[in-house]
Amino acid sequence: MAQSITAKTGNTHQPNVNPPWYLYMVENKLGQIYTGITTDPKRRIAQHRGLLKGGAKALKGKSPLILRAVFEVADKAQAAKLEHAVKQMSRPQKNGIIQQKQLNDLLCIKSAFEE
After folding, report:
1. Model pLDDT, residue 50
2. For 81, what's the count of Cα atoms within 13 Å in the CB-facing half-sphere?
3. Is 2 inside a domain boundary?
4. What integer pLDDT is reported at residue 44 of this predicted model?
5. CA end-to-end span of the chain
6. Considering only CA atoms, which of 19, 62, 11, 61 is closest in space to residue 43?
7. pTM
8. Chain CA centroid to CA 61, Å
9. d(CA 86, CA 23)
10. Which domain holds residue 49?
11. CA–CA separation, 5 vs 8, rounded Å?
């Protein structure tokens, strides 16, 4: 008797146990930079824009929101550390990250999440 694909390879419907984490930077209509972390940048930006439920209060009423940078990070702990570090930076330092498309040794992958 032939085995099903799921029996051979395991349950393919399980969520990814260790999904990649991303640090993202969004600019609002006031020119402020919001920094956050997520496992799904497209979904998170849609939430911030009010297209899906669950956006950050800090961004309510500040549309349009422009995605400025996305960086893939090894895990949630590293993403949280980087988020904290970026939030402590000055505006010129944040602008430097956006312009250079680099944060430490991470390269910006924003284009993978643009519409």
Report:
1. 86
2. 8
3. no
4. 93
5. 46
6. 19
7. 0.81
8. 20
9. 10
10. 23-113
11. 5
Residue 61 confidence class, pLDDT cut points 50, 70, 90: confident
Q: Is residue 76 part of a domain?
A: yes
Which amino acid, one-letter code, is at 111?
S
Half-sphere exposure of residue 79: CA atoms within 13 angstroms, side-chain side: 21
Residue 80 counted as domain residue: yes
**Other Cβ atoms within 10 Å of 52 Cβ, number:** 12
Cα–Cα distances in Å, from 50 out to 63, 92, 99? 9, 28, 27
Is the C-alpha dihedral spanning 92, 64, 56, 67 positive or negative? negative
Q: Specify the number of domains making up the chain.
A: 1
Residue 4 in this model has a pLDDT that exceeds 60: no
Amino acid 74 reads: A
CATH number of the structural domain spanning residue 38 = 3.40.1440
Query: How high is the pLDDT of residue 91?
Result: 96
Question: Is 80 exceeded by the pLDDT of residue 52?
Answer: yes
Band (pLDDT 50/70/90 cuts) for residue 110 is confident
